[in-house]
Amino acid sequence: MLVVSGDLVVSSKSGHIYERRLILKYINDNGTDPLTGEKLEESDLLTVKANPKSAPPRPPTATSTPALLHMLQNEWDAIVLEMFALKQQYNSTRQELSYALYAQDAASRVIARLIRERDAAREALANVQATIGITPANGAAEDVEMAEENGGQEGALPKEIVDQIDETQQNLSATRKKRKAPAGYTGTAEVKTFVATHTIPSLHSASPAGMTSLAVSHLNPSQFLTGGNDKIVQLYDRSTDKVLASLKGHTKKVNHVAFREHEGEPTLILSAGADKIAKIWAHDSASSEYIPKATIRTHKGELTGLVVHPTNSILALSSLDKTYSLHELSNFTQVYRSAPGEDAFTSLAIHPDGALLALGTPSSKIQICDVRSGNIAASITPPDASPFTVGSLSFSENGYHLLAPDSSSSVAIWDLRKMKTAHTIPLGEGFKVNKVLYDYSAQYLGVAGSEGIRVFAHKSWDELVRFEEAGDVSDIVFGEQGKEIWATSGREVRIWGVPA
């Protein structure tokens, strides 16, 4: 390129830059662009307007070796000084960034602490309001799908509901006491031979892992429900080994699940959680899916019990807010809510006749209430027992006995006719009771806990069988005709039955 210094021009044809004096001489001699060979005239040259701050060309005196060495020394000194200034600025920036990160971390910790304190204050306020019977001013803004028009904390059930309960009680009690176990029902001798027959692994999420509740369908015994710590209710078909539905809506772990199966009406799936709400899904015959039908937000504390009444039209719930409530399943309305009691309610069971319900407490006491009036019919407490939480209850099918823990590692069978314990079964100091259950025939009873499952004969109280391989069992269900025992352990559903 014919570029040295001084007056510069650029070719409008090629875009190359030249020194004016040299390019004009080349054009006069050749008439072409020296780089492209194209025809080039003086009129094709445009003057370059250089920045006034541009360094001027070096004078001839700067081309000697001593001058070049001096110039390089000056450049080196300037570079070293600039690097020193940059290092100082870099260190200052690092200190500022470190302080900003520390301040941001401290602010995050403060915000997290304030959020925890706010949530704790809200919880305490809600518990106080529930205890003294005050409804929060913003309660109407909550997403309450089951109305509470008839659901005052105190007040009688509607007459039509009472009539329905009375009719159910009369029909059931007239036949129950003399009824024998159905033909083909598994007896105590067969239970002794039970072995593990099936395991369904990897149910629910791995984090947080664990299942809390189990329910088996009566209409389709291969289908069952599980509630998990992952806030999900799962419907599973054992015959196809497939998850039929994963039902979401809870924000904390699911404590209880249940089916409502009634002839002529769609099957309902019900759940109650630690997030103080109960959810209801209904089977849609058109899509064969379960769709959300209602959310119950009546209670201000964790829900600890969920039972479908023998009428199949009423749902009962118990809560740590010291109340229990009844809800109509045909139109999803609340029909009753009890006045707050002295203790929180930790478990719930309904008498087979439907006239009584039992409520466990954290103070070892069991309250038995009349469903129709809400009055406490009886209050029973194990004699000389250290305070413990009654976390599970079960009535016998004939209605004479109530099975309940009488300590954290033993269970008692209460005779409701005399209101005293008929027998106590010790399970060992290492056994923590999670669930108690009578079978449908009331021939035997099951206890699930931290050391597996134990099954005892009613009346003789002999241990029929135990399954320690299950580990910590959270829930237990007797299968159809008593031919199987189902249980939840970790992320597994285990099934025991008669050897093939």
Main beta-sheet strand count, sense and barrel state: 4 strands, antiparallel
Overall 3D form: elongated
Q: How large, in whole angstroms, is the Cα Rg?
A: 41 Å
Question: How confident overall, as mean pLDDT?
Answer: 87
Q: Give the percentage of residues in beta strands.
A: 25-35%
DSSP summary, beta strand count = 31
Across the major sheet, the strand order is 4-31-30-29
**Helix/strand/pairing class, anyone?**
alpha+beta
What is the rounded distance between the termini? 98 Å
Which residues form runs of ≥5 with pLDDT under 50?
A: 135-144, 147-153
- Give the % helix: 10-25%
Number of helices: 4
Structural key phrases:
500 residues; alpha+beta; 20% helix
Structure description:
The chain is elongated. It has 4 helices and 31 strands. The protein has helices at 20-30, 65-132, 159-176, 188-191; strands spanning 8-11, 17-19, 45-47, 195-200, 211-216, 223-228, 233-237, 242-247, 254-260, 268-273, 278-284, 289-296, 303-308, 314-319, 324-328, 333-337, 347-350, 356-360, 366-370, 376-380, 394-395, 401-407, 410-415, 420-426, 433-438, 444-449, 452-457, 463-467, 475-478, 484-489, 492-497. Mean pLDDT is 87; it is low at 135-144 and 147-153. The termini are far apart. By secondary structure, it is an alpha+beta fold.
